[in-house]
Design brief:
Layout (H helix, E strand, L loop, with lengths): L27 H14 L7 H14 L4 E4 L2 H11 L5 E4 L5 H8 L4 E4 L11 H6 L5 E7 L8 H11 L2 E5 L7 E2 L2 E2 L6 E5 L12 E5 L4 H9 L3 E3 L2 E2 L10 H11 L2 H19 L5 E2 L8 E2 L5 E5 L1 H4 L3 H10 L28 H9 E4 L7 H16 L5
Helix pairs in contact: 1-8, 2-8, 3-4, 3-7, 9-13
The structure holds ligand T4K.
């Protein structure tokens, strides 16, 4: 994808844009065979046979029957909160994709933002405990970048204060904790199967939960609340996963291990190439009980020691056709629609991280030589901070 250097030491601009991610595509012939089945069925959505088969496969993968599929992660989380009757205040992180907070908004829940911890950018349990009020009903934590939250401390707080513990696990498909898929922590976990995720179903979302009684409720809520042809008891929405989404999800699942091991290689190469670069920081190695999925390559750019701000590096990389992303900047509380919320926590760490974070390209088709070249470009930019 990247042409050879000509004669200068200047690293070459990539021939094609290198984007932060590209979706995994199963072999077209396999997908076409699956489409043939859908054509023959003449069944396209509304709990079709492919969705039912796919649900059974995921149930086996997660070893959990309490699993429901949706057309995207945002609506899955929205319905999860609605189905659990969460009201009042929910303590959550400002360092996430805006969908996490929007799901609260659509349930008329007040988000209470507290700070994150500096290593893995997940909710700081101490800050969570300090923010609890008589109106607090739940904690909504995010396994951001697939880094597991401090789940033991959060579970302890939830138990002591009788709060629901909900995880946005949008980034965490494929992550294992103590050998088990991460979705079984807390009362409920939401996964996103969006095309930009390492595991996807074109678009899609999933809930895993403890309370078996929620299953039927989620089935109704994702289908506009219909209990029968003539009965609607709850104001649900249309959050149904269709058959083509289910087919993609089913086929990509077959390649999950391959996708993760490919990403592991690329992630480790980034780390090897960049770890010694002053001002580029990685999160520490994950604890021994965690098996990572390498969903993202987040690094922190320290302006002082790197010699340039994160934003300048981000802009300069584009000139080399390397398109990184600033996930997650700005913080959610700084978006116009949430700026009015009063906050007691100064969010010191979250603000620093949001100003420094840069996620580097990673996807299965990215070549090792691309990673090496991206790292060379970063080193080159650092040595030439005064050039435009
Ligand atoms: N909670 C968290 C923590 C989340 O991160 C998300 C979603 C959600 C909840 C909600 O789940 P969903 O409702 O989305 O299922 C992307 C995704 O759209 C979004 O799903 C994801 N988080 C977020 C982190 O990233 P953008 O605005 O950055 O997407 P976009 O279109 O700029 O794409 C990113 C890169 O991927 C581009 O460089 C192009 C490339 N791309 C994208 C698509 C869609 C492709 O190569 N092919 C494609 O088909 O939000």
């Amino acid at each position: 994808m990247i042409s050879e250097p000509a004669k200068s030491l200047q690293p070459h601009v990539a021939d094609e844009k290198i984007l932060v991610t590209r979706p995994f595509m199963p072999p077209l012939e396999e997908f076409t065979r699956g489409l043939r089945e859908i054509w023959d069925n003449q069944w396209l959505t509304n709990n079709g046979p492919v969705l039912q088969r796919y649900t059974r496969k995921l149930t086996r993968y997660f070893q959990n029957d309490n699993l429901s599929l949706f057309n995207n992660g945002t609506l899955a989380l929205q319905i999860g909160l609605q189905g659990m009757n969460i009201t009042g205040e929910v303590i959550t992180t400002p360092f996430t994709f805006v969908a996490t907070t929007h799901a609260l908004y659509w349930n008329k829940i007040r988000p209470v933002f507290v700070d994150i911890e500096p290593d893995y950018y997940t909710l700081d349990p101490q800050k969570v405990e300090q923010a609890i009020t008589p109106w607090t009903k739940a904690i909504l934590a995010v396994h951001v970048f697939g880094y597991p939250c401090k789940y033991r401390a959060l579970a302890d707080i939830a138990r002591r204060y009788n709060l629901a513990l909900i995880y946005d696990a949008a980034h965490a498909f494929g992550v294992r904790v103590n050998g088990k898929p991460i979705g079984n922590l807390g009362d409920l976990s939401m996964f996103s199967f969006h095309a930009t995720k390492l595991y996807h179903s074109l678009e899609g979302g999933m809930l895993l939960y403890k309370d078996q009684g929620l299953k039927q409720k989620f089935d109704y809520l994702r289908n506009l609340g219909f209990k029968s042809e003539t009965r609607v008891d709850m104001p649900g929405t249309n959050a149904r996963m269709n058959e083509i989404q289910a087919l993609m999800g089913e086929q990509v699942l077959e390649y999950l291990d391959e996708i993760i091991s490919r990403r592991k290689k690329l992630y480790e190469l980034y780390r090897q190439e960049l770890e010694q670069v002053p001002g580029i920081g990685f999160s520490p190695e994950l604890p021994g009980d965690v098996q990572a999925s390498y969903a993202y390559v987040p690094v922190r750019v320290d302006e002082k020691s790197f010699g340039m701000s994160r934003d300048d590096l981000y802009t300069r990389l584009k000139k080399y056709n390397v398109f990184t992303r600033r996930y997650f900047y700005p913080l959610i509380c700084d978006f116009a629609c949430y700026r009015h919320l009063s906050m007691t926590d100064p969010l010191t760490t979250a603000r620093r991280v949001a100003d420094q974070i840069l996620t580097l390209p990673i996807y299965d088709k990215l070549e090792e030589e691309d990673v090496v070249r991206i790292c060379e470009i970063i080193k080159h930019i650092q040595k030439n901070t005064d050039c435009t």
